[in-house]
Amino acid sequence: MSRGGAQKSSPLTLVLMVASAAIGGTLQYGYNLAIMNSPTVFIQTFINETFLERWDIQLEDYQVTLVWTIIVSIFSLGGLVGAIIAGPMTIRFGRKKCLLLNNIFLMSGALLALTSRAAKSFEMIIISRVLIGINSGISMNVQPMYFGESAPKHLRGAISLSSAVFTSFGVVLGQVVGLREILGSEPCWHYLLASNAIPGFIQLLTLPWFPESPRYLLIDRGDKEACIKALRRLRGCEVQSSELDEILQEQADTKGMRPRRPWELFADRSVRWQLITVMIISSAMQLCGNDSIYFYASYVFKEAGISDDQIQYITIGTGTCEFTACIMCNLLIERKGRRFMLMGGFILMTVWAVVFTIALSFEHYVSWMPYLSMACIFTYILSFGMGPAGVTGVLPTEIFNQTARPAAYMIAGSMMWINLFIIGMIFPFLVSELSEYCFVPFGAVCLLSALYVGLFLPETKGKSLSAITSEFHKLNFKGEDKRKESQTQAQYQLGEVCLSTAL
């Protein structure tokens, strides 16, 4: 074991592990968000034809829209189930094996989607979307945990942020595959819905060759030799004693403690502000409305004045924009810090929401306003990718210890999926009812989130868990610490008086 820091490392295994886990992990979330946009009309026609053939009923437009909205939004409820079961699965099976087992839901969902057309059953599409949602819910929780526990401290933010990079890459990939020239046409839409099985197969073939999370091996399993072996493979060099000592310190701090349950975190004052932070930031990630643009891209761009023929190509630009922004955030996060990137992203999103609202209000009076509206959508997505998209997944790994981390991810993931479901259900109605003011609520959410981050979230860049915990301790026990200090001072002064009297 090396005690110096001079030995050169070549963490190729870590890079390949990140790619393998993410291809079948968070890439699926972005991919499955994007592929539902292009076959909208074809699936709605399929729903109508199914009702007509079975029950000789011609559905009204609003009824078809309702069934379609259920198909789209049920993905979020599946994600909620996945987020809830992710915690117990990671504790029982470990991070890597959990990601591999997660492909059972993916393959089952892909098979149902593929055969739904031949079976003439839109219900199979609904069940498929639930299963795909469960797969995404598990991967969105487990993958950042796996990355955060496997990465060295100086790369922790960048490696964890790669989850967001692959999510945005999945969006772009889904938008490209969903083009009418590829799989987004009427004869191929069921192949498009089942195409998510391909990244899953890649993960099943590659991930078993990589090590388990070193922290899980040592802290949860108590296997020090396996931990050192995993660290040696992931770092590409001998294990630094300082890194192993930090893991051993966390093991000592949590010795004899079983994994925490979500309701226990709510009752524990020592993690109150950590929990409030992940709940607010995870909720804001969806309530800012960014992911709804992928669900209902055509609605948004129609409001911006874009013609139907151009919309499928414009939507690829939105995914590319977020992908580029996430890469930039990956390069900047270890320099600027989590707090700066998160707050800056929300502030910029607030600004673009205001400009977008103004542009929509004047689009019928000024000829170039539709182009400004479209530019605002791109800059809004760019700002989202630079901050909330990447940093949100990093936070639970950095501010909770090993025993509380799975439960924290369960809570954060649940908040994210519940809010995604709510936004997915109300967004088309929000656009139709509020029209040019549809982004005002999202702008308000971004402004409030920026204020919270600026006032209450300490910087976590390059800090150990104990240092971060001590900063949150000041918030969690703010009043009590002051009372203890005053009591201690009073007792000390009283002792002095007694001593002088005795003399």
What does this structure look like?
This protein has 503 residues and is mostly helical. Helices cover 79% and strands 0% of the residues. It contains 25 helices and no strands. It has helices spanning 12-23, 26-34, 40-55, 61-93, 95-101, 103-119, 122-150, 156-177, 189-194, 197-206, 214-220, 224-235, 241-253, 262-267, 272-287, 290-295, 297-303, 308-336, 338-361, 369-386, 388-399, 405-434, 440-456, 465-476, 478-502. The longest helix is centred in the N-terminal third of the chain and has 33 residues, at 61-93. It starts with 11 loop residues before the first helix and ends with a helix.
Helix content: over 70%
Taken in chain order, the helices and strands follow as HHHHHHHHHHHHHHHHHHHHHHHHH
- State the total count of DSSP E strands: 0
| Strand-residue proportion | under 5%
Structural class by SSE content: mainly alpha
Distance between the termini: 59 Å
Averaged pLDDT: 85
Tell the overall outline: globular
Low-confidence stretches: 3-9, 492-503
How big is the Rg? 25 Å
Q: Supply the number of helical segments.
A: 25
Largest sheet: none
